[in-house]
Amino acid sequence: MTQFADQQKENTQPVEQKQTNKQNVFEVENLNLWYGDDQALYDIQMKIPENDVTAIIGPSGCGKSTFLKTINRMVELVPIVRTSGTIKYKNQDIFSSINKEELRTKVGMVFQNPNPFPKSIYDNVAYGPRIHGIKKKDVLDKIVEKSLRDAAIWDEVKDRLHENAYGLSGGQQQRLCIARCLAIEPDVILMDEPTSALDPISTLKVEELVQELKKKYSIIIVTHNMQQAARISDRTAFFLNGELVEYSDTNQLFSNPTDKRTEDYITGRFG
Ligand SMILES: Nc1ncnc2c1ncn2[C@@H]1O[C@H](COP(=O)(O)OP(=O)(O)OP(=O)(O)O)[C@@H](O)[C@H]1O
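Above are the sequence and the adenosine-5'-triphosphate SMILES. Below is the predicted complex in structure-token form.
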């Protein structure tokens, strides 16, 4: 574990946007978002590199989930939402150059509570590919096996693929949901507190899985758990009251934060 800083610092430095050699999967500029008259995100600027694990931390209500749901346009399911600013996914403006369905195929999402469909394990994973027109059994069989293997759950379910997914434990259900997400071949996986409903052993399995998945996917994970962010992420963004206060390499953010508010939060002075 990284040591948290305990030095007092002046709150004068700008949000760090360190350049990396990697391409960015997302480039967010001047993003503002309102629910009706209430503003939830303020002028967010953020470049998210590919094949990194990017953690989003911050106290309850600071806008973490809203931000996550904005970058795959799920937030628009709330009718009163209004946004301004630009978000580019691989250089394409997500509001004008790519349609929502295509974006959501490329940017999959895993939620806080495992939410398998009331179907068999097999049919849960085959659901997305079938919607995308894949009908042949041998092709679906391969996709299902590969997705379950990549989600590190194949060995546990290979002999019960046609049993109902609700018969799995919570941790297994969450890895099944990750397999379901992988089956549509996304580039990016958004995870909204994916382990907060899981026991410590299931949490560890999902954390290990995230480390494997980042070899192929870019992962953006909202977590309340700062130790988890420190363990599994390459970069961390700290949100507070709808603002992005600090965004940098995870080691730096936890060991040498540039903003006093970040330091207060990671040292447990509030939140
Ligand atoms: N559907 C909605 N309608 C109106 N306001 C909303 C809606 N969803 C979120 N908000 C408001 O937007 C702000 C940010 O909420 P959000 O859920 O993004 O925060 P969060 O950091 O993810 O919180 P938590 O850690 O508790 O999940 C809060 O003030 C919240 O009340």
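Residues 24-267 form a domain with the Rossmann fold fold (CATH 3.40.50.300).
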